[in-house]
Specification:
The protein has helices at 2-22, 26-51, 55-85. It has 98 residues and is mainly alpha-helical. The termini are far apart. 10% of the residues are buried.
């Protein structure tokens, strides 16, 4: 039974990783990053259920809270960057270099 969850987790992580590498739209990159976080959360929860303790599930709850905060801050930065520069692709951003 755990094999199905791990296969789902690996599939979601692979989709997120390929989407993050291939796509250059900043908002799509953030969505692919969230898909990868959720894939890791699925594997944590499945291992926690398989081992019979709830440590992994508690870690998943904290991870979801941190991912929500990260998504809010990341989206705010992306929207401010798009509003100021008008650039939505990661290849075209050169103004942040020090």
């Amino acid at each position: 039974m755990i094999n199905e969850y791990l296969l789902l987790s690996a599939t979601l992580f692979t989709i997120g990783l390929i989407g993050f590498i291939i796509r250059r739209d900043l908002i799509v990159m953030l969505m692919c990053l969230e898909i990868m976080f959720n894939a890791v959360n699925i594997s944590f929860a499945s291992f926690s259920y398989y081992n019979g303790n709830y440590t992994g599930q508690v870690f998943v709850l904290f991870s979801i809270a941190v991912a929500a905060a990260e998504a809010a801050v990341g989206l705010a930065i992306v929207l401010a960057l798009v509003r100021i520069t008008g650039i939505n692709h990661s290849d075209e951003i050169t103004g942040l270099r020090g």
